[in-house]
Structure formats: C-alpha cells, structure tokens
C-alpha cells in the first residue's frame, strides 16, 4: 500500500511539473511571422491605388467656381485645392442657430440678402443640404432631407453672423442657414483671394436667372490659358481586382484586348486598349441607392479609402438622382477636364450595403507638360452667338464654364504603360442638362 501511495505521489508531482512547464511555454510563445505567406496579408497590402485617405472631402465635394459680388463689381476664380481649403475652412465646424425655408414659384428673390456684398459657391450638381452641412461643413442642423441645392450664397446678417443661402437647381427655393459664427474670418480670406480673381459677368438666359442671386456667372474676358500635354501611367488591373473582389477570380480573355474577371460576388471587364475598367457587384442583386444623403459620403469614403483620389484632383461633377450614379471628374488647375470617352471620370453607384457599380480608366496622371497659349472668346461673344443660334433654345443654357478639352491621341512611340493626351482650354456650356464644347457659335 505504501508503495502504491508513493507511486501516486510521484505521478501527481510529474503532472504538476508538466503543467507548470506548459504554462510557461504558452506565456512566452512568440510566433515567427517573417516567413508566413498569408493571402490575407497580401490582399491588405495591395488593396490601394495610391495613398489611402489622401483627399479632403471639402476638395472633392466642392464648388467649381467662387464668385464675389460687391455692388456692380463681380470677380471670381476657379479654385485650386488650396484655395478651396482656405474658403471652406472658414465655414466649417460652426453651430447653426436658425434654419428657414423660403419658397417661390419663379423669379426668385431674396429680400434679406445683402445685395451689395455676397459670395457665390457654384456646383455643377445638386445635392442634399443635409449632406453638405453634415459631411463637409461638420455642422448639425435640422434641414428637410429632400432639399437639394447647387448654389450657396454666403453673406453676413446685420449682426455680423455668417448666413448661407442654399438655392435649388430650378432656382425656385431657398434654405437660409444662420450660423453663430461671425463672418470676419470668411471676409478676410476672400479679401486675401481678391488679387487672384478675374472679372466675371452676369448672364441672364431665362426667367429663372433674372435676379442677382440667380444669374449665371462666368469669366468676362478669360485670361490666355496654356494647353497641357498629360502623360499617364497605367494602374495594374490586378490592383483593382484586389480592391473589388473578395477572393480569387476566374480570368476569361475576349476579343480586341478585352478581359473578363469574375467570381461568385462580382464581374469586371477590362479593355487593355482603352484602359477602361468596369466592375459590377452581383451580390447587390441589381440594386442601387438613389439616396444621395448616404451615397455621396459612402462613395467618397470608399474611393478615398483605397487611394482612388491619390495624386489626382478628382471632384464630384454629376449626381444622377434616378440611377444613383455619381461622376467624379478630373480637374486641372481648378478647371474641369472633359474627355469624350470618359477616360477622366470615375463613375460609381452605391448599393444597399456597399459598392454596386464602378467604372474608371486605369490611368493615373503625372506632372503635366506646358504647351501653347490659347486665347478664348469673351463671355459676351459666347452668349451672343448662342442666343442667335436658331438651332438652340437659349433658355436651356444653365451654365457657362471654362474647361479643358482632352484630345486623346496616344503616342505610338511611348512604351505600353504610358499614354499622351493634349488638354486644350475651351468654353463648355451646360445645355438641357448635358455638357457640350463651344466651337464657333455651336455646341459640339
């Protein structure tokens, strides 16, 4: 019996010692990660086009022009990203003290607006005021979710506070937003930018643009502008696939340089000649969201999150409230660029849970090379030619801007990963909702 008890004691001691040793090993275990070939880690390293989160929202969800009205003197500019940050920065992070909805059937006028001094922020698209106040200006206000605008007028009230007048695209409604902040800082920034502005004119095209707050504003005598030759690098298609597909894809080659990639959740087509890439998320089950209050910030965060705006000045340019599609367009020197093949666009549609449709050219611009200087017609010359063109209904003209027309002619002597394009300054006219290049009195 004593022998059995002795053996039990030895076994119990050994078990206790083994437990102590195992516990010590667990506490001090450090796995060697240097040689691990992890698919997940590879994906996380490749799911970016450029530096993630490199764009600021006020530079992407931004006005295409800033116009200052001082009595009969009107000046404006096509703002750079730095200028946008200065101006919009003065409007951010303020409390809203009052919101007032002003509505008119037509011939909109704003009696409480200081007609002698105000600033206009013009957008090429309409968007919910709740989105701009909340996401861009970081201000909380109770605003009707369905109210959309494409122009904001910044003024100061008799107490010296900032006032924003958001005007609807049809120029029939206004939402007045009064802030607790004083207008001093905003006015100081605008005075600083005054020397960089050029003379602008006020254009009336129909009954909805006859008030000072609803005129079309455009450069009176545009300064001579240089053409540019842009050299593009190609973004690897594997990078886009890694961003958009959750797992491995099946590759199916097609005709004329077209390749299809697909798996259980999505399908993408890529044309190696045009460099155009189109992805569709099959898991969204043919659904897209037309709720711009969620679509605009969601698409911005998604594209920005994988570096889609990196090193390029992309800005929101169009919102399609029926299909839910947003178009982000490439800008150069503060001016929009236009390409007939949409090679300068990022077209994206948001679904119920994530990205639904994504289209872009896999091109990334490098430093533009300066070309020849071009003189542009005065805005009065353009206006007169359009008004006297019997093939056009001048009342359908809603915007007149300077942009760059891209003549996309790849240089055959370049290596495969490069493309050359010439960007030529041109008047662009928004007519009946679409954009056209102005050439000798016609819309091309």
UniProtKB/TrEMBL annotation:
Pfam families given in the database record: YycH
Organism: Staphylococcus borealis
Keyword field contains Transmembrane: yes
UniProt keyword terms in alphabetical order: Membrane, Transmembrane, Transmembrane helix
Bilayer-crossing regions: 12-30
Domain Regulatory protein YycH: 5-440
Keyword Transmembrane helix carried by entry: yes
Protein name from the UniProt record: Regulatory protein YycH domain-containing protein
